[in-house]
Specification:
The relative contact order is 0.06. The strands form 12 sheets. A 4-stranded antiparallel sheet has the order 2-5-1-8, sandwiched between helices. Helix content is about 15%, strand content about 35%. It has about 750 residues and is of the alpha+beta class.
Length: about 750
């Protein structure tokens, strides 16, 4: 409006100019959108008197993932005569479209009750579906892209295994060889920034970086999945490699991730406001999608709890996973929905540890899989004894429980086949001045779950089942002084502790009524052993002294070597025989290959500064290859999936092993000859290259000499092969005079 004077007064109200006020106080037009509205299907159909209760439940459920507007839940109704009922769906209006997306991502497929699993979709999809043409048009066919087979290495003609070696800044993958150096498959520099890890079935190799985790695989070792999790320290796969759990000490920050990714890559940020501040993430391995994140574990008083890894433990079917809140509760979740079973944790006061049965057990009569099983233990508290409990999942029914007294601590050890559970119980003597161990062995596959007790006079510090389905044997490492030797910051010790190693087996007696109990087979006394390493196929074991500088022995044993002596004495323990005793200076780690034919002992620069590298042994302790490596860090065999052969087929293979062994020996012989032939061909190629080069040089020299002579150059005279030039020196006496001087 122009400045006011009496000369320019408008004649009427219509002539007043308000343009300057309109431009100053203009209200921007808001685009109407329904992107903040979601449609929720499969709700319970309720009557008016229960509607308010359902709305409160929906507000509470949806409010955890986004802010619901006041009066933002609209539930259509049906008029059925005199009654009015809801239609089983609702429209929920949230504050922002971002809240709507968070609700869809977290609650689509959420079990509101056993009979009602929510289906949550954007309201805007309704408009999209109404615009679909009546006549169907097939989408254009996408070109087929062939992906590499993630288990291609299993088709190796020689049945070789692979292993990865991390030295300095280099990461190398090799084929294992018996009679010659390992064959390199791939080598890359700066492939990882921290360390390397295989998935449980060997499909993926994971490398750790500042910004997250990368999964590699296939014959070309291409990047398959990138996991964005800043500062990731550890990772754990589910048993069948479908899920991946990662943990970082740095809480998730959306702003930090966006800044680091940059404007062009912010769409790759997998996190939402719900993930802010969490440190543990669960991912879908096939797609790299974030399924859920969790806050770090907390104590009951609100302080940060001590972090144990793995943080989550998976059932063998991958349908469930669980984690423990030390001393108070056990939380069991379903996959892939990532929600709590029965929507709540199990309150278990004092819980100290738990373990899943590692295999799904089937009923031998019907072939139907039984419910999965989980074991946990609680310590003594007041007048209440310590207790071991077995429950089934998901119904959480109690299968078996046993009370224990005078308990100091306990550890749970499932047999790999899942039919036996050993609880290693450290107990006080009556005087409370010393400790001893009881082994409480639950036979979980039998009716009423009978328990065998093996009582020791000293303390078992290591327990390990033989990984074989045919034998129920185990080895223990026991000592009168269970105190761990002092270790330095890298986990090395300079103190040796005298230990004993004992082997036990399930003994069956009786012809009519079968009586079973665990019997001591043999005890090997006064060893320096710190670790027991069974072959993955059973029977063979290495008693190793690891990370101990004064001692570094490797003792190889065969539990079935001398069967004739065992049959003669009637004691199966007499078959146990020492195959070899070796040493590897500074040994820090030991690993069997998946076939059980080879063992690698290694010395890592992460543990001590001297003589790094690895030694390859065969199963009976014969050294095959000693490979010193500067700045050696890690070596891991590539795992193999479980064999598809039945137990009957395996027995048939063992029965005809001599025939197979002949074929294998012929293959090895051909391979050695092929290597020799390749070496001879290489040498012949070098000689041919030398002779060709010499002929070319001689021809060039002749041409240059001819050109020089034509230009006046006089070459030195060179005698022919038939003429000889002899230089002869002749001395003659011209005069001789003799004079006597007085």
């Amino acid at each position: 409006m122009v400045s006011f004077t009496f000369d320019n007064l408008p004649a009427s109200e219509e002539e007043i100019d308000f343009s300057d006020l309109e431009s100053r106080f203009v209200i921007p037009e808001q685009e109407e959108t329904l992107e903040n509205v979601v449609v929720v299907d499969n709700l319970p159909i309720v009557e008016p008197e229960k509607e308010e209760k359902l709305i409160k439940l929906l507000k509470k459920t949806f409010g955890k993932h986004g802010k619901v507007k006041e009066n933002g839940i609209h539930m259509p109704k049906d008029n059925l005569g005199d009654k009015t009922k809801s239609k089983g769906y609702a429209f929920i209006e949230l504050e922002t479209p971002k809240d709507a997306q968070a609700v869809i991502r977290n609650l689509n497929g959420f079990p509101l009750s056993k009979a009602h699993v929510l289906l949550v979709n954007p309201f805007m999809d309704v408009e999209k579906f109404t615009e679909i043409e009546d006549k169907y048009q097939a989408p254009p066919a996408e070109p087929f892209v062939e992906h590499e087979h993630l288990k291609s290495w299993l088709a190796d003609d020689y049945g070789r295994d692979q292993f990865v070696v991390y030295t300095g800044k280099n990461l190398n993958v090799y084929w294992n060889e018996t009679s010659q150096a390992a064959e390199e498959i791939v080598s890359r520099t700066n492939w990882t920034e921290a360390y390397v890890q295989w998935s449980p079935l060997g499909s993926y190799m994971s490398t750790f970086h500042r910004k997250g985790l990368v999964l590699w695989g296939g014959p070309s070792w291409n990047k398959l999945i990138r996991i964005i999790h800043f500062g990731v320290r550890v990772a754990d796969f589910s048993p069948s490699e479908r899920y991946l759990v990662t943990m970082s000490q740095d809480p998730i920050s959306l702003e930090k991730v966006n800044q680091d990714l940059g404007p062009e890559e912010q769409h790759q940020n997998p996190y939402t406001n719900d993930d802010e501040g969490n440190t543990i993430c669960i991912w879908d391995v096939r797609t790299g999608t974030l399924l859920r994140s969790f806050a770090p574990p907390m104590n009951q008083d609100g302080t940060a709890a001590k972090i144990a890894w793995p943080q989550f433990r998976w059932s063998p079917s991958e349908k469930y996973f669980a984690r423990m809140v030390q001393g108070s509760a056990l939380s069991i979740y379903e996959a892939p929905s990532m929600v709590l079973v029965d929507k709540k944790s199990m309150k278990i006061p004092g819980i100290q540890d738990f373990a899943w049965c590692p295999k799904v057990i089937t009923d031998p009569r019907t072939g139907v899989a039984k419910p999965e099983m989980l074991a946990y233990w609680t310590p003594e508290e007041g007048n209440l004894p310590a207790r071991v409990s077995l429950i089934t999942v998901p119904n959480k029914a109690l299968v078996r429980t046993k009370n224990l007294f005078n308990v100091f601590t306990a550890a749970l050890h499932w047999h790999p086949e899942g039919h036996v559970l050993c609880v290693r119980v450290q107990r006080y003597t009556k005087s409370k001045k010393s400790k001893f161990t009881n082994l409480e062995i639950f036979r979980t596959s039998e009716k009423d779950v009978p328990v065998d007790v093996v009582e020791l006079k000293d303390c078992a510090v290591v327990f390990d089942w033989e990984p074989s389905s045919e034998n129920t044997r185990f080895a223990i490492l026991h000592t009168s002084d269970p105190t761990r030797p002092p270790m330095n910051a890298t986990g090395m010790t300079t103190v040796t502790a005298k230990t004993n190693v004992s082997f036990y087996a399930l003994e069956r007696k009786g012809k009519v009524v079968k009586k079973e109990s665990f019997k001591l087979l043999k005890t090997i006394e006064n060893k320096n052993t710190t670790a027991l390493k069974w072959s993955p196929r059973g029977r063979y074991i290495v008693l190793a002294t690891l990370r101990t500088f004064p001692s570094y022995e490797l003792d190889f044993y065969d539990l079935d070597f001398d069967q004739s002596a065992a049959a003669k004495s009637g004691n199966p323990g007499d078959a146990i025989t020492s195959l070899a005793t070796n040493e590897h200076y500074g040994v820090t780690d030991l690993e069997w290959d998946p076939s059980g034919r080879f063992v690698i002992s290694s010395a890592s620069v992460w543990r001590h500064p001297m003589e790094h590298g690895y030694i390859l042994w065969n199963f009976n302790g014969q050294e095959l290859r000693n490979v010193p490596m500067e700045d050696f860090k890690q070596l891991f065999w590539r795992p193999r999936p479980r064999a598809l052969l039945t137990e009957e087929q395996k027995r048939d293979v063992r029965k005809n092993l001599k025939a197979y062994a002949k074929d294998f020996d012929e293959q090895d012989e051909r391979k050695i000859h092929a290597a020799d032939a390749e070496l001879m061909a290489h040498r012949r190629r070098l000689v041919t290259e030398w002779e060709t080069w010499r002929a070319q040089v001689e021809e060039l020299l002749t041409e240059e000499t001819d050109e020089a002579i034509a230009g006046g150059y006089k070459p030195p005279i060179i005698a022919d092969s038939e003429d000889f030039v002899v230089d002869e020196i002749v001395e003659e006496i011209v005069e001789e005079k003799e004079e006597i001087i007085n």
